Model the fold of this input.
Amino acid sequence: MILLSNVSRWHMTAGEPNIILNNVSCLWQPRERIGILALAGTGKSTLTRLISGVERPNRGDIRRTGSVSFPIGSTHGFQDGLSGAENVRHLARLMRRDIPETVDYVESFADIGKYFHRAVSQYAPVMRARLGFALSMAMEFDTYLSDGVVNVGDHGFRDKCEAALHERLTRSGIILLSRHSRTLTRFCTRFYALHEAQLLECDSAEEAKDLLDYAGQYGDTFWNQEARYG
Done:
């Protein structure tokens, strides 16, 4: 379970508050597939960090029961001077996972050959992405968290990523934030639009897209005022 209680988050920009969330409350049960449609620059990454616990709200409270993943495909924890294998061992130890099992899974899934035992600083971006996604799939969580990443690499590897994620979702939930309604439709069953610092629940990803399209076209209309304050 993930509970947001009257959560507000803002950043100061040029002396003015940039409000990401304004007094938001939501309850998401275990194994729910939550899709949040968010346009660029509206706080998708900040919301991801809040849900994961990396960042704290200015006001309100976020409670979690069960394990919540780091963002799928994230490579922020990798150290460039270590090899892929050394990074995986280090992170598996921190996450209290079986180290040999995790290393074997990631090496097989990422399929980057000899580069798995070379320094990450030598990796092309796609290799780094493959390693990050493989590490995400190597670890079981009650809820997976994604900042829009559901696959990486070439067509064959993307299919492999999606198959692995669908398999995980037979026993886990997901909170997926994306700019693309079709991505949400493929993986999620409950939908929101992030609009004017609010999470507005919608019946479908297409409805969330229509809401954001309408708001973008018509600006500060009565509908937007209702969405914000109603």
